[in-house]
Structure formats: C-alpha cells, structure tokens
Amino acid sequence: MRFLTFISCLFPFFILSQNGPHPNAHAHNDYQHKSPLQDALDNGFTSIEADIHLIKGELYVAHIKPWFNRKSKTLTSLYLDPLLKRVQTNDGRVYPNFESEFLLMIDIKGKGEEVYQVLKKQLEDYRSILTAYEDGKQQKAVTIFLSGDRPISMVKADKKRLVAIDGRPEDIGRGISPALMPVISDNYKNHLKWRGKGVISEDEWKYLRKLVDDVHKEGKRLRLWASPDHPNAWEILYKAGVDLINTDDLEGLNQFLSRQK
Question: What whole-number percentage of the chain has pLDDT above 90?
C-alpha cells in the first residue's frame, strides 16, 4: 500500500486505470486505516465516512472522543484540505473523468446543532469544490451529507447550505427531496437475518429488492451499515442494487467491484 500511495502521488492516472473509480464503494470508518482518505482513493472508493467530535471549538475525527487533540486529526487536515488539493489538480474532480458525485459522509458523534455551526464556518473555505444548495442543487466534485446526530431542522432551514442529510427508512414516502436527503441508511441487521453465508432466502431477497426499489423511486441511494463484509455478501448486495456497499476491507471490495465491470 505504501508503494501504491507513492505512485498515486506521482502518477494519479496509474491508480485510476487500475482501481476504478467504484460508484458502489463506501469506506466505513475510513479514518481507521493507515492512510485515511488516501488508502480509499488508491482503491477507487467514491464514498468516505468520517466520524467527528466537537472539542474546544474544533472538529476532530475519531470513533470515540479522543483524550489528546492533535491538529493532524482534524476534519480539515484529514479530509477537507487533501480533497481540495486533489480536486484542484484533477481539473475540478476527485478522479479524472469521473463526473458523478464523490460522497463525504460526516457522522456527528453528539452535539449536532453545535457541530453544525462550527462545520458551516469551516466548509466556507471549501465552497469551490462542494455541492451547494441555493435555488436548487449545484453539483460540485464533493457532496457532503451528515449522519449520526443530524441537525435536520437547521440544515433544512439553511438557504445557502453545503451539506445534505443522511436519511432513514422511515423517511421513505414522506416527500423529502433527494437534494435534502440523497441517501437512506440503516443497520443491516434491522432488515435481514442472513449473515452472508450460504444462499439468501427467497423471502429476504425479495425484501431487500423491494427496499432498494423504494429508495430508488425517490431518486436516493441505499446504504446498509454493519452488513456482512466479505465477497459472498457483497455479491448479493451488489446484485440487489444496494448503492453504497459498506466495508472495512478496501482492497477486497476494490478487487470484487473491479471484477464486476
């Protein structure tokens, strides 16, 4: 991976030609990998997950609130600054010749409304690369949507917002625009008993397909977290039309999706 990271810095087109990009690939807890963001980019991922905590006016990336606050672990240093630099050097895109949205899912670990006030100010410095919502949607290279402790009312009322909201299955059928809620997410175990081994039952397959169809009818994408994380399960999720396949195994999912093309 160190070699791939070095080569990607020198020759980004090399990595692109080898690994994607993959519209279905979602890097769960991306910051836990050895090289946050870069490892996912090296494997062609187009959706990244970062958990954040508000500590003394700054946003830090971690699953559990950190005791020691390091500037190298902030949202700006780990994700926003590198994405800005990459987009600026790739003619306005995260991946050359990839015109679809690159998703950055920010999972707010508490104090959602306070976090949003800080996040709003930080995102203004990156407006040139972020999808904006003002008199409609103006798509840019990176689309941010907020999960976890979601400040739904504040985001909805924001007339010049730079973020969207991560939806839940109970939001289906409520007439919520995909511009506000582009993704529907939920715990896999809330829907299926199949744990990825053997053959999925016909009833659960039909249930999964209906869930996918219901989400797609609203112009949204489906993500199921805590799903079985291996090729047998990825194949079922992929064939069912699940839009964002949740994984910790970046290289494994990269290889799987590369074989589907």
Answer: 85
Token pair 């949202």 is found at 75
**pTM, to two decimals:** 0.90
Phi, psi of 228 (to 5 degrees): -55, 135
Q: Which domain holds residue 136?
A: 2-8+20-256
Nearest Cα neighbor of 126 from 77, 192, 67 is: 77
**Which pLDDT band, with edges at 50, 70 and 90, does 221 fall under?**
very high
| 3-class secondary-structure state, position 253 | helix
Say how many CA atoms lie within 13 Å of 33 toward its Cβ.
Answer: 25
Does some domain include residue 226? Answer: yes
Phi, psi at residue 183, to the nearest 5°? -130, 140
CATH number at residue 78: 3.20.20.190
For 259, the token pair is 């074989």
| Ordered alpha helix ranges (H), the chain | 2-10, 12-19, 38-42, 75, 81-89, 112-123, 152-157, 202-217, 231-240, 250-259
User: How many domains does the chain fold into?
Assistant: 1
φ/ψ bin of 129: left (φ > 0), alpha (ψ from -120 to 50), beta (otherwise): alpha
- Contact (CB, 8 A) for 196 and 232: yes
Whether residue 39 lies inside any domain: the answer is yes
Q: What six digits make up the tokens of 163?
A: 């973020």
Q: Residue 261 falls within a domain, yes or no?
A: no
- pLDDT tens, 47-85? 999 999 999 999 999 987 766 667 769 999 999 999 999
